Amino acid sequence: MVARRGATRLGCLLPLLVLAIGVYFAIDFGQVYFRAYQFKDAMGSEARFATTITDDQITRRLAALADSLELPPGAELITIVRSPRTISISSDYDEVIKLPMNKEQVIHFHPVAVSSLQ
Predict the structure, then answer these.
(1) pTM of the entire structure?
(2) Which of 17, 20, 32, 66 has a CA positioned 20 to 30 A from the CA of residue 56?
């Protein structure tokens, strides 16, 4: 029979605590980046089908999506630039993430989607 020391159980607690804290903060950052990815993906879809819809329709759809994703004010301000061969759809907004000790992290997003109109 081998005697075990209890120190390894307590020694494992510190890395688990650090991991839990890391996961706690990663969730907030992950949600922000996932929403930005969803918004940019929708812009790409709208750009691909831009030959069949108007700029006003694109703007309304993306503004509605920004609202449903609960993006901050400014995300619904969509810029659309059409040329004879391409369309470019973009937006510009800042997300604020609350951190401990009453600190905030501001992350700037500028999603852009460009597609050929042919």
Answers:
(1) 0.81
(2) 32
Q: What does the block give as tokens for 38?
A: 């969803």
Helix (H) or strand (E) holding 115: strand 112-116
Query: What's the rounded Cα separation, in Å, for the pair 41 and 37?
Result: 6
Helices 55-68, 7-48: axis angle to 10 degrees equals 160
Tell whether 50 is covered by a domain: yes
Beta strands in 8-102 (DSSP E): 79-82, 86-90, 93-99
Q: Which amino acid is at 71?
A: L
- Look up tokens 């918004």; give the residue: 39
Domain span at 66: 7-116
